[in-house]
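Holo model, zinc ion. Inputs:
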Amino acid sequence: MTTVAAYAAPAAKAPLERTTIERRAVGEYDVLIDIKFAGVCHSDIHQAREGWGEAIFPMVPGHEIAGVVAEVGPGVTRFQVGDRVGVGCMVDSCRECENCLRGEEQYCLNGMVGTYNAVGKDGEPTYGGYSEKIVVDENYVIRIPDGLSLDIAAPLLCAGITTYSPLSHWNAGPGKKVAIVGLGGLGHMAVKIAHAMGAEVTVLSQSLRKKDDGLKLGADHYYATSDPKTFEELAGTFDLIVSTVSAPMDFGALLSLLKVDGALVNVGAPEEPVALNLFSVIGGRKSLAGSMIGGIRETQEMLDFCAEHGIGAEIELISAAEVNEAYERVLASDVRYRFVIDTATI
Ligand code: NAP
Ligand code: ZN
Ligand code: ZN
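Output:
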């Protein structure tokens, strides 16, 4: 066991503070990672505030981890000391069910092990990336390509894969009209990735406040959802809509913007349920779907895609002590476009 410094929420809704945690000894197939950067995902806030239900405290959030391998167990074959690596939302899964065998460990039938706010196979709680070091089985570690610096790569481990996976699954590409709802951490990655895939990209944001940024990130069009004219003008327009909104939304209104056979894929995880009139999907044979992060193999594919296209996150680097303030700014939709903790400051 190694004692490492971390930032943790001691209880639900309590501010995060500096503490120490124990990391397990490096096992046969484990990799010890010196964490350099940890992204701040809105999911960290939902969980640290117990918005999704009962949680495990103290909680060390953080599932957008970028760092360097410091030690490997004797059975490790894929990584060496000095390798640049990332860890996302999962650190284990059953490895035997049909979804694990297909490389979709995020949908493990026996429950994947979350990077934090979960219990590992050793029966101990897992602790996330707002810390100096982490020990992870090599099968759940991803290589960060040389072309990507670690700070802008960190958010790809959640925001990047969560948007890449549905864009790829629903075939965003040339000739496709794709709308991204919400220009936050996930939304800005979705715009960059959909643009790189060759789709015609529209941002649907609450206001036009971030329009210049959205167009620079790769959007072709930008509309405000607060303006009722947006819904008249864009009715029946899109092949695919990806909603990244963290609060309950009017999904009926978004569905009205799809073409016949279009799909609205929700990746936002609001704390409250939403109501939906099912006539919104009947008319136009529309699909309403969801998507959760991505498998390990697809996460590597996404990082390679991002390196090839020169895509990283737009980040605001913060010290660990600034994390509580950053949470408030995320909640106020005042994020441009991902806070990343420099873990040297913990
Ligand atoms: P974020 O940075 O806060 O971005 C969310 C964006 O949604 C905001 O920037 C804002 O964009 C828009 N928004 C916020 N409140 C709104 C409201 N009341 N009405 C309309 N729009 C609103 O959050 P994030 O880190 O991107 O995460 C987004 C959501 O995805 C969270 O719920 C998170 O838990 C979830 N998530 C899911 C997965 C998954 O696997 N499915 C993975 C990661 C995160 P505008 O200012 O442009 O309107
Ligand atoms: Zn996340
Ligand atoms: Zn499984």
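The mean pLDDT is 98. Residues 93-94, 96-97, 99-100, 108-110 surround zinc ion (ligand 3) (CB under 6 Å).
Archived with the compound record.
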